[in-house]
Amino acid sequence: MTAHWQPAADRLVSGLKSVFGNRLKSVVAYGAHVEEHGDGALSCLALVTSMTLGDLEACARMSDGWRRERIATPLLLPEDEFRRSLDAFPLEYGEILRAHELVFGASPFDGVTIDRGDLRRACETQIKSHLVHLREGFVEAGSTPRAISELVTASAPAFGALLRNIARLNGSDARDRAAATRDGARLAQLPDAVVTDIVSLERPAAVNTTDAAKIFPEYLAAVEQLARFIDAWHG
């Protein structure tokens, strides 16, 4: 059965071919659509052999059409630049590697690995930035339940990503989003209840705003535990 996002991906490929011709080497879809999790714009990575300002101008002329079709601006990269930047963006590329579907060309990930040292440093930055964000956001909320609720709900997707990155750092190869999230929570020894509550907020309609505000203390404690975990981690 054809995935619901496939027609949009095919139209994206057709447009990119008109710009890059045989310089277009690979297109992969990734993110919420591939995982049947959410209904935002379709995300794709496109690798080419070379890219000029003229190519970017041609793509710019198609951007309004992409928006109308709920296609996010594709991540356009020369192949060699992609491989050289794995150390700079280990979390972002790692998430694409975890769950993606090849749309066009040869798989760009054959032989691609992400160094665990790079991944560990990026995880530490991500976790501690998240912790600072929660603390500052709570102070700025001024003890207003609605504002605290909005803080918790808005940050829930990033919390899930933290857990999946912890799982990847520890060698988990779970492709399923929920399984990878659970693996990370288990490895960091986080309470099941708070993880379930926070991750459920990635679908805001599932939990009301009062519940989101009430779970802030446990949420903050869980992120503090993640910070302690990454500080003590040894591969």
What does this structure look like?
- This protein is an alpha+beta fold.
- It folds into two domains: 6-105, Beta Polymerase, domain 2; 116-232, Four Helix Bundle (Hemerythrin (Met), subunit A).
- Helices cover 59% and strands 10% of the residues.
- The chain is built from eleven helices and four strands.
- A four-stranded mixed sheet has the order 3-2-1-4.
- Helix 6 packs antiparallel against helix 11.
- The protein is globular.
- The mean pLDDT is 90.
Record the SSE blueprint.
Elements: H1 6-20, E1 24-30, E2 43-48, H2 53-60, H3 63-68, E3 75-78, H4 79-84, H5 90-98, E4 100-105, H6 116-141, H7 145-169, H8 177-187, H9 192-200, H10 209-214, H11 216-232
